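Exercise 3.2. Students should predict the tertiary structure of the chain below and write it as structure tokens, then compare their answer with the key that follows.

Predict this chain's 3D structure.
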Amino acid sequence: MKIKPKKSLGQNFLSDKNIIKKIVDVGKINTNDVIIEIGPGTGNLTEFILKKKPKKIILIEKDYKLVKSLYEKFKNSVDIKNEDILNFQVKNTSKEKFIIYGNLPYNISTEILAKWITDDEKFKSTSKLIFMFQKEVADRIIAKTNSKNYGRLSIISNWRLNIKKEFDITANSFFPKPKINSTLLSFVPKSKYFNIRNPKNLEKITQIFFNKKRKMIKNPLKQIFKNPGLIANKLKLDINLRPQNLSPLNYFEITKEYEDQLINWLMWFLINSTS
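Answer key:
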């Protein structure tokens, strides 16, 4: 079956066998591993994963035409699910953890990563993520404090994941050839991470700060807290700094103070509404 890549789904199929082998090797797959591959396309990466003889391979593919092609190619050697990865629910009833591979559509790549960070079931069921991103997006994910690419994506990614840049991949490795280059990143869930009650609060805090990234941080602090000076002193923050000057830990601590403030407001409301 001849497959024509769909532009609407952001399909660019990886075709360089040397690059495919390098990507598979990053996972250090053994015979006890369960693999999930997001967007397997024509199955080029899947072929190399099968050579490692993992315990099980689960393919998540949205395009029904590709699903049919994958069934024809691999028969019963893999478990194929015709699903949108954004709606996919991880149901891991065993103690095994998944290695996740993904040549992600550029238009939803950060949304997929965010789901694996913020969804407890996905996060706890994963031993390693090996994702390909548009190079510019990867540069933002791995960016350090005070750099031009540092921002919300860098902070949120660092909350629960250890991140490593593996290598860059040129556009020539794909069919059809995209207009940009890619970067392969690997992510390992942290065993210990800052306790944030609701990840949406971290998303909210970073959005408020980086919506005014050229302003000094005293401005977003005033927007978030009733007593911004008190919070700044407690967290030892220089209010004349700008958002890109604060570390991920600073943002985690600010988020915790915000959550504590929400709880205090709720307690005040409950007490006063019953008195």
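Discussion points: Residues 48 and 258 are 47 Å apart (CA to CA). The chain has two domains: 8-189, 199-274.
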